[in-house]
Amino acid sequence: MSTNTTTPASQPRKAKKQRKTGRRHPLASVALIAIGLLFTGAGYAALSTNSATAQSDATSQQTITEGEKLFAANCATCHGLDLEGSSEAPSLIGVGAASVDFQVGTGRMPMQMQGPQAQKKPVQFTEEQTAALAAYVASLAPGPAIPTGEVLDGAGDAANGAELFRINCAMCHNVAGAGGALTEGKFAPAIKNVSAAHIYEAMVTGPQNMPVFNDMNVSAEGKRDIITYLKYVENNPSPGGLALGSLGPVAEGLFIWIFGLGTIVALTVWITAKSN
């Protein structure tokens, strides 16, 4: 006959042990909350991103549509409704937003009158209208974009920029950026008080008679250095005194010939008159 060895005192301990084994870990609730927050945050971020993208696309399309209207009313007469150009104006297909921003943002376009080249004049459009025109032209064919970021900060190497400018630009624009005459009534304009963005855009688009300096000719860092040099020259007066328009030795020689030699002649006449 078998006997039951389990004592009454051991039974509560066994039941208590079984109940303890079935209890959840204290951190389980925290983990569940964290997982819930993670999935909720991810879903909200995805929805917000999609909403922002859709809003940005809508804004971009609205800007392009506004630019198309402005182009049809102000530019299509010469450049054509399809930007294909005419006998009076070049094609704009592939010129990019940078070219439009430069030409319109400096007042060269719309052109006031036909001539050897477009003259700089007061700007005809607001910044928003200029951006809309640029966006419309860029939407039809790829081209150089409007520059942004550190290439415009003027914090590059001014010494390297001066060397690059002398090699690539000074033969037309003068070593101090004072501009100079070209052939057939054309000219290289002065680069004083020109924004960094417009200087960069001129280099990458080659307006008027200017060649295009892509990144194979002058790197983006090199363009930044050139802008830094030009801004340094603009913000620092001539260390030699009267700059005479910074037009170089011809202007300096002419000044000496007229005023220096004239002074000597006048002094000679005065001394001769006194001696008599």
TrEMBL record:
Q: Which GO terms describe its cellular component?
A: plasma membrane
**Listed transmembrane segments:** 254-273
Localization annotation: Cell membrane
Q: What sort of enzyme, by top EC class, is this?
A: translocase
Instruction: Give me the stretches of Polar residues compositional bias.
Output: 1-10
In its record, the post-translational modification comment is:
Binds 2 heme c groups covalently per subunit.
Arranged from A to Z, the UniProt key words for this protein are:
Cell membrane, Electron transport, Heme, Iron, Lyase, Membrane, Metal-binding, Repeat, Respiratory chain, Translocase, Transmembrane, Transmembrane helix, Transport
Q: Which SUPFAM superfamilies match?
A: Cytochrome c
Q: How does it sit in the membrane?
A: Multi-pass membrane protein
> Which intervals carry biased composition (Basic residues)?
13-24
Question: What InterPro entries does its record include?
Answer: bc1_cytC-su (IPR009152), Cyt_c-like_dom (IPR009056), Cyt_c-like_dom_sf (IPR036909), Cytochrome_c_Oxidase_Subunit (IPR050597)
What the entry lists under Gene3D superfamilies is as follows: Cytochrome c-like domain (1.10.760.10)
Among Pfam families, the record links this protein to: Cytochrom_C, Cytochrome_CBB3
Q: Name one GO molecular function term.
A: quinol-cytochrome-c reductase activity
- Chemical reaction(s) catalysed: a quinol + 2 Fe(III)-[cytochrome c](out) = a quinone + 2 Fe(II)-[cytochrome c](out) + 2 H(+)(out)
Q: What is its EC number?
A: 7.1.1.8
The Cytochrome c domain is annotated at 62-141, 156-234
- PANTHER family in the cross-refs: CBB3-TYPE CYTOCHROME C OXIDASE SUBUNIT FIXP, CYTOCHROME BC1 COMPLEX CYTOCHROME C SUBUNIT
Q: What is this protein called?
A: Cytochrome bc1 complex cytochrome c subunit
Instruction: Say which species the protein is native to.
Output: Cryobacterium roopkundense
